[in-house]
From TrEMBL:
Catalytic activity line of the entry: [glutamine synthetase]-O(4)-(5'-adenylyl)-L-tyrosine + phosphate = [glutamine synthetase]-L-tyrosine + ADP; [glutamine synthetase]-L-tyrosine + ATP = [glutamine synthetase]-O(4)-(5'-adenylyl)-L-tyrosine + diphosphate
UniProt function note: Involved in the regulation of glutamine synthetase GlnA, a key enzyme in the process to assimilate ammonia. When cellular nitrogen levels are high, the C-terminal adenylyl transferase (AT) inactivates GlnA by covalent transfer of an adenylyl group from ATP to specific tyrosine residue of GlnA, thus reducing its activity. Conversely, when nitrogen levels are low, the N-terminal adenylyl removase (AR) activates GlnA by removing the adenylyl group by phosphorolysis, increasing its activity.
Taxonomic lineage of the native organism: Bacteria, Bacillati, Actinomycetota, Actinomycetes, Mycobacteriales
GO molecular function: [glutamate-ammonia-ligase] adenylyltransferase activity; [glutamine synthetase]-adenylyl-L-tyrosine phosphorylase activity; ATP binding; ligase activity; magnesium ion binding
An individual GO BP term: regulation of glutamine family amino acid metabolic process
Entry protein name: Bifunctional glutamine synthetase adenylyltransferase/adenylyl-removing enzyme
CDD domains documented for this protein: NT_GlnE_GlnD_like
Region (Adenylyl transferase): 494-991
GO cellular component: cytosol
Residues annotated as domain Glutamate-ammonia ligase adenylyltransferase repeated: 124-310, 587-824
Keyword Thylakoid: no
Pfam families, sorted: GlnD_UR_UTase, GlnE
Natural source organism: Mycolicibacterium sediminis
Stored InterPro entries: GlnE, GlnE_rpt_dom, NT_sf, PII_UdlTrfase/GS_AdlTrfase
Length: 991
């Protein structure tokens, strides 16, 4: 260690050198870097990404060198390239600084003219080291050799930050790291064979590199993915090769890097080594789409080269036909979702690999395009992402400018990934936390980012990160769809671009989930064919819109619906402007159009709802409407018209928009199922009230109305639990006014009720408005309207068990509120008898329920998946709740409730049944109601039967808010929940 200098001339202050550590001045004194001869050296130090860390490492290195320090110190003064490389690597990597301190003489590797060794030279060096080492010294020797080679590469890679040496191309770094990995694997294989076989012959074994190593675009720190292939199918041969492969992984893990063989057939559960024939058999019969995608990067890396070449030759033809597999599209969509779910929401903005606009977006898009078009284009049979992008551009599958921009963004993000990993030689893709400015500033300097005259390097890095992430996100969509638009003549094509053929466009659309690619191209041509402003805006919008559509259950129907809406709103300037300027509007619209057949028809006639897809102060503007406020507005709007036809039309118009709003909010997960049912009930109640008001006003004689009328909601209407496909079950009750004769009053009230039903039931393009009065006394054969006294007399003498049960859900919904309240008070003694329900009535209810189970299920329906009448479905839950009400409501007032869910809560609070049983019934009712609503949203018409596995079931899962939209998982959950509920139903109904 040199003695401190006795003189201190005028030198740059430590602050100007970027040194902030309190010990910096003392460290400079210890090194003797205090004379005019060290000025240039100090300025070189100042340009290190972390000058303090570089200085500390030099001091440690000097201590280790002792007397040898003079040689290094002199070389640093004289050799600008050496100090650039040394300071650059020490300021970038704490781990390589530790390595250099542990092997101080390795600094010679950075002096003079330094070049990267060839792949052959690397392999020879590592094999020589393995052959010449003893068992005791092999691992330390190979570990040091591997770190030395990393040291040289890193020094050349980061040196431009300090001495303006030629910049190593990103591809060069990745290729050299892969060559280094190959050499290390070869050495580990040699040691493994020596351990297992001694000096005897070893069986043939090929090591196939996968992933980034296979593509020769490896990171500084990365798992090296491999597959092992043998040619000896005998048990002894396989056993020996399995032992050799295991030892290879152990040696490599200890000396170099983690070796991961999880990409082999059957993953970690599969056999570590298989013969070539066994590999071929597996991929022919069992492999999934992602496994063929992984094989895109397969490359012989070590071991027997001929066997490795045979493996690649045998399996590559299968890779290029993978897109023809039946499950290709759902597998690809599932892979996309899994990638997105891997990243916790809290760190998504810091993830440069798996986050939105990250490296995986680029890699996934490129690999998918290769799989789609590589079947007919051999030029796409390349492994690296950068090479594949170039080939896709050359083939016309990607625009040349887009490919260049995406390549630049990819290389920028990979550069940051490399620098983050170099710091501690740890595997990471995570940016520093947003508040850690020093760590971000270090990253900026390590990544060659300089101030731009306005912003410092940290500001430039932050802006560049934002820009590159947005560009990747934008190009990720454009990558798939811009060439499609060009193929239909909807966009101007660069003269240098070859363009995509119609056949290639159809292949690509099919791979992205479009089952009718020819029709899809027709829609694209129609949307972009307009040469004016609308066509130009559509050409800008469609790449992103199509990408969002492709992630929905039915992109074909979604694209058709989008075309229909666009053509319907061709004269509405706000429409395309909203899609262009409000990202949330466009994304939400695509999700809805690609999922639902119910909403698009409503939007065609109520397009103003699309504006409500925008974000508001409290979330989406879809939630800004209060159901009660809407109901009053609807009644008031209808009341402005004296003509019943126009009044009902006004009510229908507002109902249409409200249904579109509710359904949209439901599909987007903004409302839960109980909120949806309450809102739908509010719509029906408002329509009934408006229709009753307008018809009554139009038919009231000059002397005044002869009677008052109340509408009593029954079934789900009375329970405030209507679904999208529900009719309005009602009873009409009237009361004569003044001295009006009862027969006259009833006749007039019947006329009013019939007109209400007829005018609401008039066929239209909107969802039906069916008013069902079949729950009235004597059913269809009984009078449509009765007086309060007539109802009282009938129920007192003739009420059957099912009619009493039906009254449990009676609730006044429209008309004269005072009359409706009197009706409810009158029937309380009937539905909640003071002494409870009789045993005979209970037996009759059980008999009717058994008959319903046996006879009412539609022919051909699956009783396990019929949401209303099936096992554990809505009927089971509601009948069970109503039986408990009949038996206990006379002594538990909380059971005087028309809502199934609220009554279940009261049942649990009263401990009539176990809380666990209550929860099972509650979950079954919610699950079946969600499924029933989702069926209408998806199919566009009422239905109760869940479909079998396939696209429509996936759509139902999405509409029901099931995570990932996996129809199979949704159906499994439905069957499990309803099966458990049915057990409770049997227990209670049999009690």
């Amino acid at each position: 260690m040199p003695k401190p200098a006795t003189q201190r001339p005028t030198l740059p202050g430590v602050g100007r050198l970027g040194l902030v550590a309190p010990t910096a001045r003392d460290d400079l004194d210890r090194l003797g870097w205090t004379t005019d001869a060290h000025v240039e050296l100090l300025w070189s130090l100042s340009r290190a990404p972390d000058a303090d860390e570089a200085l500390r490492a030099v001091v440690r290195l000097a201590d280790e060198l002792g007397a040898g320090w003079d040689e290094l110190g002199t070389a640093l003064v004289k050799d600008k390239a050496l100090r650039g490389r040394l300071f650059g690597v020490l300021g970038s990597s704490l781990a390589l600084g530790d390595h250099l301190v542990s092997r101080p003489l390795s600094w010679h590797l950075l002096a003079g003219s330094v070049a990267l060794p060839s792949a052959a030279d690397l392999r020879r060096d590592f094999i020589d080291a393995a052959e010449n080492a003893t068992d005791a010294t092999a691992l330390p020797s190979l570990r040091s050799l591997y770190r030395d080679r990393l040291l040289v590469l890193a020094a050349l890679d980061v040196a431009p930050t300090v001495e303006n040496e030629p910049v190593l191309a990103f591809t060069t770094v990745g290729e050299h790291l892969a060559d280094l990995a190959d050499a290390a694997l070869e050495a580990a294989l040699l040691l493994a064979r020596r351990t297992v076989c001694g000096t005897g012959p070893a069986p043939r074994l090929a090591v196939i590199a996968m992933g980034k190593c296979g593509a020769r675009e490896l990171n500084y720190v990365s798992d090296v993915d491999v597959i092992f292939v043998a040619d000896d199918a005998t048990q002894s041969g396989l056993t020996a090769n399995i032992r050799i492969a295991g030892e290879l992984m152990r040696f490599a893990n200890d000396a170099f890097f983690e070796v991961d063989a999880a990409l082999r057939p059957e993953g970690k559960q599969g056999q570590l080594v298989r013969t070539l024939e066994a590999h071929v058999a597996y991929y022919e019969r069992w492999a999934k789409t992602w496994e063929f995608q992984a094989l895109l990067k397969a490359r012989p890396a070590a071991g027997d080269p001929d066997l490795g070449a045979e493996y690649v030759a045998a399996l590559m033809p299968m890779v290029w036909t993978a897109c023809e597999r039946e499950d290709f599209v759902p597998d690809v969509q599932a892979m996309r979702r899994r990638v997105e779910e891997l990243v916790p929401a809290g760190v998504r903005a810091r993830e440069i690999k798996l986050g939105t606009g990250g490296l995986r977006d680029v890699e996934f898009a490129v690999q998918l395009l290769q799989l789609v078009h590589g079947r007919t284009d051999d030029t796409l049979h390349v492994a690296s992402t950068v090479d594949a992008l170039a080939a896709l551009a050359a083939g016309g599958y990607v625009g040349r400018d887009d490919a260049a921009n995406l390549t630049a963004s990819y290389e920028f993000l990979r550069l940051l990934e490399h620098r983050l990993q170099l710091q501690r030689l740890k595997r990471t893709h995570m940016l520093p936390e947003s508040g850690d400015e020093e760590a971000m500033r270090w990253l900026a300097r390590a990544a060659h980012i300089r101030p731009d005259g306005i912003r410092d390097s940290l500001g430039v890095l932050r802006e560049e990160l934002k820009r590159q992430s947005l560009r990747v996100s934008r190009l990720h969509a454009k990558l798939f769809y811009q060439p499609l638009l060009e193929s239909v003549g909807g966009a101007s094509v660069d003269l240098d671009d070859a363009g995509m053929s119609t056949e290639a466009a159809e292949r690509q659309l099919a791979a992205l989930g479009y089952e009718g690619p020819q029709s899809a191209l027709t829609h694209l041509a129609a949307l972009t064919g307009n040469g004016g402003r609308r066509g130009r805006v559509q050409r800008v919008l469609l790449p992103t819109l199509l990408d969002w559509l492709s992630d929905t259950p039915d992109p074909d129907a979604g694209l058709l619906a989008y075309r229909r809406i666009s053509e319907e709103l061709i004269d509405q300037r706000w429409y395309l402007a909203a899609l262009r300027d409000e990202g949330a509007v466009a994304k939400r619209l695509m999700r809805i159009l690609g999922t639902s057949a119910y909403v698009p028809d409503l939007l065609m006639r109520a397009p103003e709802v699309i504006r409500q897809y925008a974000d508001g102060p409290n979330g989406a503007k879809l939630l800004d409407v209060e159901p009660d406020g809407f109901a009053k507005a609807l009644v008031a709007a209808a009341g402005r018209h004296t003509d019943p036809v126009r009044a009902i039309a006004a009510a229908r118009t507002l109902r249409r928009g409200e249904l579109a709003r509710i359904a949209s909010a439901d599909l987007l997960g903004l409302m839960d199922v109980t909120e949806v049912c309450n809102a739908l009930t509010s719509v029906w109640v408002a329509v009934l009230q408006a229709a009753l008001d307008v018809v009554t006003r139009a038919n009231t004689p000059a002397g005044g109305a002869p009677a008052t009328i109340a509408v009593i909601g029954m079934g789900r209407l009375g329970g405030l639990e209507l679904g999208y496909g529900s009719d309005a079950d009602v009873l009409f009750v009237c009361e004569p006014l003044g001295d009006t004769d009862e027969a006259v009053a009833v006749k007039w009230a019947v006329s009013i009720a019939e007109q209400v039903r007829a005018r609401l039931g008039t066929p239209s393009a909107d969802p039906p408005l069916e008013v069902d009065a079949n729950l009235r006394p004597e059913g269809r054969s009984g009078p449509l309207v009765r007086t309060l006294s007539s109802y009282r007399a009938y129920y007192a003498q003739w009420a059957q068990a099912w009619e009493v049960q039906a009254l449990l859900r009676a609730h006044c919904v429209a008309g004269d509120a005072e009359l409706g309240q009197r009706f409810l008070l009158m029937i309380d003694d009937i539905r909640y008898p003071p002494d409870g329900v009789s045993g005979d009535a209970v037996r009759e209810i059980r008999r009717i329920k058994a008959r319903v189970d046996a006879e009412r299920l539609p022919r051909g329906a699956d009783p396990n998946t019929h949401t209303k009448l099936g096992r554990g479905g809505l009927a089971d839950i509601e009948w069970t709740v109503q039986l408990l009400q009949l038996r206990h409501a006379h002594r538990i007032p909380a059971l005087h409730n028309t809502s199934t869910l609220e009554t279940l809560n009261a049942i649990g609070a009263a401990e009539l049944i176990a809380e666990g049983d209550v929860d099972l019934l509650r979950q079954a009712w919610l699950t079946a109601t969600k499924a029933r609503n989702a069926l209408v949203l998806v199919r566009g018409k009422p239905t109760d039967q869940l479909p079998g596995p396939g696209r429509q079931l996936n759509a139902v899962a999405v509409a029901a808010g099931w995570p990932n939209g996996d129809g199979g998982e949704f159906l499994d959950n439905y069957l499990r929940v309803t099966r458990r509920a049915k057990t409770v139903v049997r227990k209670i109904f049999g009690a």
